[in-house]
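--- STAGE predict ---
source: upstream dedup step, 1 unique chain passed
mode: sequence only
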Amino acid sequence: MRRRLLLLSTLVGLAFALVIGIDAAYAGNAGAQHATGPCPSLVRCPGAATPVPGAAISVSKNGTGLGTVTSVPAGIDCGPTCSRGYIAGTSVTLTATPAAWSTFIGWSGACTGTATCNVSIPHTNGAIAVTATFTVIPHCLVPNLWGKTLAAAERSVVSHDCSVGRITHHASRTVKKRRVTSQKPYPDTELTPGGKVNLVVSKGRR
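--- STAGE serialize ---
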């Protein structure tokens, strides 16, 4: 009887140790599941038993224009989020999208050209710098011309890459003679280069 009890106790102990070993192995490999996607920290990914090698991509924007840079896998939306760490071996694609009246000139740093930027994350921890350059497309930004003399209004129109359109004259009780009383389009309207701005000029009181 004692031998049977001793044998049963030994078998239970071995089974318990096997379960513990399986759990430990699963926990140790949990970090590997993050190898195909972004990791918030390169020091230690969630569930990883040891630090995971990788690198951070840092995006900066340059130039007179506006635009955004996004990544696949997700993580960078620059915009607000311009840096993200990724596990070694991850292939990251960056796409630059210009805003209205801007154009994308190209990449510098880890990428060149104007196509998508493809970055393969190395095993050495560090930072990968990428710069996206955007420039403004020349266009007419309609100025505020109300109350200006006709001569001053015409100069302002030309200096904003616009052109003077139709000029009409009307009597006005409130605006002095030869000054602008209204305009179309309204101020801050964006037009193609040389877009026409129509003016109404005061003839003074009747």
